[in-house]
Design brief:
The chain has one helix at about 100-105; strands at about 5, 10-15, 20-25, 35-40, 45-50, 55-60, 65-70, 75-80, 90-100, 110, 115-120. Helices cover about 5% and strands about 50% of the residues. The protein is built from 1 helix and 11 strands; from the N terminus they run E-E-E-E-E-E-E-E-E-H-E-E. By secondary structure, it is mainly β. The protein is globular, with a radius of gyration of 13 Å. The strands form 2 sheets. Strands 2, 4, 5, 6, 9, 10 and 11 form a 7-stranded mixed sheet that branches. Strands 1-3-8-7 form a 4-stranded antiparallel sheet, with no helix packed on it.
């Protein structure tokens, strides 16, 4: 079955960087759309970045220029490089996947999340 396992979260100071990873298994990774979402306390889950099968990436306006999503199809890993972190980036970060049609609606497969905390 589809499994997604995130890692790389932690507590950092504003302006620092973190790199999240998501190890995927149980499906043909290269054929699926993948992405990162986040949810802060008291807020709805929001999309952060996603990458389709062709390698085209999209980003939320709030992270453009600071975050970079990448995927390693050979090793079934999704990355999120987060630079110049801000306090408002504090959230639980999730990776998600599905076929690209479903992904645009709402992906069905989610990891357990990794916490990112940014302090001033």
């Amino acid at each position: 079955q589809v499994q997604l396992v995130e890692s790389g979260g932690g507590s950092v100071q504003a302006g620092e960087s973190l790199r999240l990873s998501c190890a995927a298994s149980g499906f043909t990774f290269s054929l699926y759309c993948v992405g990162w979402f986040r949810q802060a306390p008291g807020k709805e889950r929001e999309g952060v970045a996603d990458r389709d099968r062709a390698g085209i990436s999209k980003y939320a306006d709030s992270v453009k220029g600071r975050f970079t999503i990448s995927r390693d199809n050979a090793n079934n890993i999704l990355w999120l490089q987060m630079n110049s972190l801000k306090v408002e980036d504090t959230a639980m970060y999730y990776c998600a996947t599905d076929n690209c049609i479903q992904f645009l609606r709402r992906p069905n497969y989610w990891g357990q999340g990794t916490q990112v905390t940014v302090s001033s």
